[in-house]
Amino acid sequence: MTAVVHLPDAQRGYYRSNRFDWSGSIACATLNGHTFWGQWFSHYDPLGNDAITGPAEEFRSPDGAEPGYNEAAPGGLFVKLGVGVLRRLDEKPYSFGGKYPIVDTGVWKTTSNRNSVTSTQVVHSTIGFDYRYTKTVEIDKKSNIVRLRHTLTNLGKRPIDSALYNHVFLQLDGKGPGPGTSVTLGFAPTVETPFPESVSVEDRTIRFLGPPPNGRAIGSYLTGYTPETPNTSEISDTSTGLRVRQKTDSPIVRFFFWGHSRATCPEAYIAIHVAPGKTQRWTTEFALEAPAAISPAPR
Questions:
Q1: Residue pair 20/6 in contact by the 8 Å Cβ criterion
Q2: CA angle, residues 162, 217, 145, in degrees to nearest 5
Q3: Averaged pLDDT, 193-197
Q4: Closest among 175, 183, 177 to 36, alpha carbons compared
Q5: Cα–Cα distance between 233 and 136 in angstroms, integer?
Q6: Angstrom distances, CA of residue 252 to CA of 33, 103, 192
Q7: Which residues have CB under 8 Å from 296's CB, separation 6+?
Q8: What is the DSSP string of 192-203?
Q9: Taking all residues of the chain, what is their mean pLDDT, rounded to a whole number?
């Protein structure tokens, strides 16, 4: 198994916009000649809101705002974890799709070896929100696991309350969901926004009978989980034999499912609460499965 990891860099980084955590996105992973993740969008712009490959993570506060946003006047400052210090533009509520100027990206440092890449960001603001955030992308070749280890330490005077989800943006051999794609969760979901007829829900499994209609995306919040529900999902494709088992060691607090013509994304949110001087840690794993390559028959 091999993987290519994008590094956070304010001048040369693959992703330099204001929505997603800059660290830990994977350009591509390969196993037995098959590929996982990749560029799922058609137009690339490093400053584009969602021009990032998976597994892309975003910190998004439960109240729809970011630390300091609601109290900031237009022109004032707020913090986006994993990005840095941003500037509020107007009186409108915070929008995850909005373009907010990045005032300070903090200090990023990255170290790597043959099996892992560790990126650390230290941010100091003038509004009481200071933090140190470390993410390690680790390749466990014995188990074919991509592991994301996180540590968030509050260096400021104010508590950090947020949530984090993984916008998986998973491609299997360069494909999004279609006939043969299924997503099995740790709970039997109730769908808030009905899916089209090409997507069925049976017990714990979301099954694609066809691609998302008209080449567009489908999406809905899901309910049915409890604090004890395993934070797991399994994405499989019968046409290729590929499978990805995802798990996180923190409870689900919100769940959104998004299926694009070129990416499959079960998005489980976890709670982030770090008091001043305290640290929160969590880990997400992606276990990759692919059939062994078939050698050509000898002549």
A1: no
A2: 60
A3: 93
A4: 175
A5: 21
A6: 33, 32, 17
A7: none
A8: SSPPPTTEEEET
A9: 95
Judged on CB neighbours under 10 Å (0-12, 13-18, 19+), 224 is middle
What SS3 class is residue 113?
coil
Residue type, 202: E
Residue type, 185: L
Q: What pLDDT shows up at residue 63?
A: 81
Using one digit for the tens of pLDDT, what is the confidence trace for 30-74? 999 999 999 999 899 999 999 999 999 999 987 878 999 999 999
Cβ-based neighbour number of residue 228 at 10 Å: 9
Instruction: Please tell me the predicted confidence (pLDDT) of residue 39.
Output: 95
Q: pLDDT tens digits, residue range 200-227?
A: 999 999 999 998 887 778 999 999 999 9
In this structure, what DSSP letter does residue 74 have? T
Cα–Cα dist 163/80, whole Å = 12
Q: CA geometry: angle at 196 spanning 190 and 199, to 5°?
A: 70
Provide the strand spans (E) within 155-278.
160-167, 181-185, 190-191, 199-202, 205-208, 218-223, 232-237, 242-248, 254-260, 263-274
Contact 130, 124 (CB under 8 A): yes
Helix or strand or coil: residue 22?
coil
Give the per-residue pLDDT at 211: 87
Is there a contact between 115 and 106 (Cβ–Cβ < 8 Å)? no
Give the pLDDT score at 104: 98
Tokens found for residue 186: 């740790």
pLDDT digits (tens, 9 = 90+) for 93-114: 999 999 999 999 999 999 999 9
In 3D, which of 80, 18, 78, 24 has the Cα closest to residue 49?
Answer: 18
Tokens of residue 69, six digits: 């946003």
**In which residue are the tokens 């609460």 written?**
273
Query: What are the angstrom distances between the C-alpha of 3 and each of 98, 124, 152, 196?
Result: 31, 32, 24, 34
